[in-house]
């Protein structure tokens, strides 16, 4: 039973470490996208195809 407590404690510590690493990466701007907004106007919107009306 004590093994479960040890594994639970280790998994919580690892999860906290990953969360802290994620927060640091976000604050350093690693996930900022500075490229896409400048080329967004070059991509054309896809045309919406209308379904043909059925004639009886």
From TrEMBL:
Ranges annotated as spanning the membrane: 6-26
Keywords: Membrane, Transmembrane, Transmembrane helix
Protein name in UniProt: Cytochrome oxidase maturation protein, cbb3-type
Pfam families listed in its UniProt record: FixS
UniProt entry tagged with the keyword Transmembrane helix: yes
Presence of keyword Glycoprotein: no
Matches recorded under InterPro entries: Cyt_oxidase_maturation_cbb3
């Amino acid at each position: 039973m004590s093994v479960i407590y040890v594994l639970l404690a280790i998994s919580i510590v690892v999860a906290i470490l990953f969360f802290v690493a994620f927060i640091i990466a976000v604050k350093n701007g690693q996930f900022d996208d500075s490229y896409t907004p400048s080329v967004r106007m070059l991509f054309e919107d896809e045309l919406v195809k209308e379904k043909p009306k059925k004639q009886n």
